[in-house]
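Supplementary Note 3. Input sequence used for the single-chain structure prediction.
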Amino acid sequence: MGEILVVLLVVGFMCGLINGAIAGKKNFDTTTHMFVGFLAGPLGVAATLLMEPKPPQPPGTRSVVCTRCNTRQNVLQAASRFECWHCNLITQ
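The predicted structure, written as discrete structure tokens, is reproduced below.
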């Protein structure tokens, strides 16, 4: 019984690492996908392989999330504040 648990943990760990690497190349959050890969094993890796990649972030911008509506958007690197395009909240 102990050997089976060790094998499952090793397979889960390896699938998590592989899933995180694939997700990073497809512009997804690597930490979340590593966790999914650990829990789902080879099925999680297969699901990530089938996902369409997200478009890359434009050069000179950073990705921010609005604190009111949770909308993700790209703003210039040098910008200290931005206005959310969805709810018009000005955030610093």
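The chain has two domains: 2-50, 61-91. Strands lie at 61-65, 72-76, 82-83, 90-91.
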